[in-house]
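User: Let's play a game. I give you a shape written as tokens, and you guess the letters that built it. Ready? Here's round one.
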């Protein structure tokens, strides 16, 4: 008999529902669906967040907040784009939220040396988000945004982005080409 954890038999076969079906089930308060989303996506989310923040406690909190947000508002995923890209967006925002100082100015100055440093990447992304480039990016279709996010912002290879997004490598390349064209036109 397999070991039982939290009412779930570890030997039972993996849930065969798609990520989209799991999110729909979470909308219906299906905890098993949330557990399956966590099992599928937590490992790579934790790895990628750890590349941005060395403090494992902060990374763990960001992961927890990510799946709590999914549980509370599964309707945040509108059904377009990849669920994995949606989860990544929540995870990055959760990490940034954890790293952002929330104390008053005097308190922040007192604890400045003890605070985790914000990476140069995070500073650039924050500036870009509110620039013409950020506006042009927000106007791209979700499919194009997911490819740009995976290849440019996350630094994945075409093959890694294809695996993450569940699409062929050629599709990643063609969407990236289309995104470049649309961004270039929007910024002229």
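Assistant: Ready! My guess for every position:
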């Amino acid at each position: 008999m397999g070991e039982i954890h939290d009412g779930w038999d570890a030997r039972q076969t993996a849930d065969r529902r798609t990520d989209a079906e799991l999110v729909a089930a979470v909308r219906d308060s299906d905890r098993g669906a949330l557990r399956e989303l966590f099992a599928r996506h937590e490992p790579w989310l934790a790895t990628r967040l750890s590349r941005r923040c060395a403090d494992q406690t902060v990374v763990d909190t960001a992961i927890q907040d990510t799946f709590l947000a999914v549980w509370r508002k599964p309707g945040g995923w509108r059904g377009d784009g990849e669920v994995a890209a949606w989860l990544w967006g929540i995870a990055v925002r959760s990490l940034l939220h954890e790293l952002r100082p929330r104390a008053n100015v005097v308190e922040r100055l007192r604890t400045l040396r003890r605070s985790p440093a914000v990476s140069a990447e995070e500073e650039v992304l924050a500036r870009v988000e509110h620039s013409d480039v950020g506006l042009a990016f927000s106007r791209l279709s979700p499919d194009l945004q997911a490819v740009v996010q995976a290849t440019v912002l996350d630094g994945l290879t075409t093959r890694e982005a294809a695996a993450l997004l569940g699409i062929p490598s050629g599709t990643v390349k063609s969407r990236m080409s289309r995104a470049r064209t649309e961004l270039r036109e929007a910024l002229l």
